[in-house]
């Protein structure tokens, strides 16, 4: 009863079982108690990860285990392990993934998200249009500030397909407000098929576009997903009974740095660059 009051259910379930093991193996009382506490902490960690997983919205199939790294551009594959460790989240940095449709941007972002969850981070995956509609609804109901506070509880927010959002002024304003609120504090991961020079199509106003880009790249890792379409290759493999291409190859690779941002590029037929643009 006391263990239930103290909210130690795992200790309650295993106390007698572990006591028998401790007696059999000659543990000290300290060893017995330490083992029970370790079981409680591990169970809480596992339960927390499961709750965070359910709340994340991450596609269950887009994990690191299902990602074919051989098809990634070499510079991106090299960065992936470091990003999955989550140091960028601790520093409040962003990860921006650019590339044409079918290049694996969403899968890479989700794989990073799943690894962050495993390390105890809170992650939210959402199509950009869905987040915009969520924020617009909150603004209409005069609870935008409360909604932003709720979103602030996520260590990393993955905005998928920002390039497909054609904003009205109201939509642009709530998206910019969200990005500005997280600036230098919490991380965002963004996938886009539009390079920076085309982001006027998203934010409409040149000044707002420049301000949004400036905040995003100030502390950011920029990944360019080049090469052929992975979806097209997978479809071709299916038609050929599993005998497909060896993946996206890169002819040259370089890492360039802008102030506060690391840009990983791989030149293999990429259409345009992830431009910082003229601010």
Describe this structure in words.
- This protein is α/β, with parallel strands linked by helices and 279 residues long.
- It has 2 domains: 2-51; 57-267, 3-Layer(aba) Sandwich (Rossmann fold), CATH 3.40.50.300.
- Helix content is 51%, strand content 14%.
- A 7-stranded mixed sheet has the order 2-3-4-1-5-7-6.
- Helix 9 links the parallel strand 3 (156-160) and strand 4.
- The N and C termini lie far apart (65 Å).
- The model is unreliable at 244-259 and 263-279 (pLDDT under 50).
Query: What number of domains?
Result: 2
- Shape summary: globular
Regions with little confidence, pLDDT below 50 for 5+ residues: 244-259, 263-279
CATH topology name of the largest domain: Rossmann fold
Mean pLDDT: 84
Determine the structural class based on helices, strands and strand pairing. Answer: alpha/beta
The oligomeric state is: single chain
Secondary structure elements and pairings:
Layout: H1 2-5, H2 9-25, H3 29-56, H4 74-85, H5 87-90, E1 94-98, H6 105-118, E2 123-127, H7 128-140, H8 144-152, E3 156-160, H9 169-182, E4 187-192, H10 200-203, H11 206-218, E5 220-224, H12 230-239, E6 252-258, E7 261-267
Parallel strand pairs: 1-4, 1-5, 2-3, 3-4, 5-7
Antiparallel strand pairs: 6-7
Helix pairs in contact: 2-3, 4-6, 7-8, 7-9
